User: What shape does this take?
Amino acid sequence: MELRNLRHFMVVAEEMNFTRAAERLQIAQPALTRSIHNLEEELQVLLFDRSKRQIALTPAGQGFLKQAYLIFADVEAAIQIARQFDQGKLGYLAIGFTGAAIYSVLPQIVHTYQERFPEVEVVLHELSMREQVTALSEHRLDIGFAVAPSLVENLAYERLLECSMVVVLPETHPLASRARVALAELAKEPWIWFPRKLNPHYHDQNTRLCQQAGFEPRIVQETAHPHIMASLVAAGLGVAMMSAWTQSLKREGIVFKPLLEPSWSVDLQMMRRKQETSPLIAAFTSLAREISSKFHPDA
Assistant: This one.
């Protein structure tokens, strides 16, 4: 069934006159008559009683008219939904993140995005860098956020932010009152460390810092979760090194101290598939750039 024929039927039913309906539709009356005839042939019912001077809807025509209005309402709703999808205003986004991202700019990005696009469902997934790379490649994730990710050929990377590394000490530590701490002063401490299998680059950069300070870190525990790392430090099980973003943890029993020596800058990278054409993803990444350019951790 063609929507055009359905539309013609509705106008004739509203005008109850083929001449006026043809003028309203801006088509020739014979063409309109053929359109209604074709529709009746397809339905195998008469929609109009033409036995009198004034045409009238048959009972079948009356019932069909009610459904025709519903059909056109559904078509219009479908058109609006399609346009919203095309404009990135409706749909579903799966966002992956590591701990550092959630302690930096990501919550602000998601909050602002949902204010601007309330009809888009955003689902966050805490995943390691490697898990995000796999999920992006398999189209189970739309956008990923990770610190110092390993580069993969089929993904596009964009640096949003950078920050320095800090050491995390128990508040009772002898160096806790210092404004800054030299890594060499922590050479004999037990360390809570980030697992290499989850992000080799991040792990190796931190290890290299210690080596440059003249020691190999004595690793006693490993965890990828900043809040767990902070809790282990607070319990006196060791010291740790984290990105400065994690100072927003505000965990009792620990202090964050900048390093005396220069450290590497941690990059927060946004990852997505190359040649991605989704308007949803385009709108989110554009907002991520906007928010990140104005981001102040203490604001």
Observations:
- The first strand starts at residue 48 and ends at 49.
- The chain has three domains: 3-86, 91-161+267-293, 165-264.
- Residues 165-264 form a domain with the D-Maltodextrin-Binding Protein; domain 2 fold (CATH 3.40.190.10).
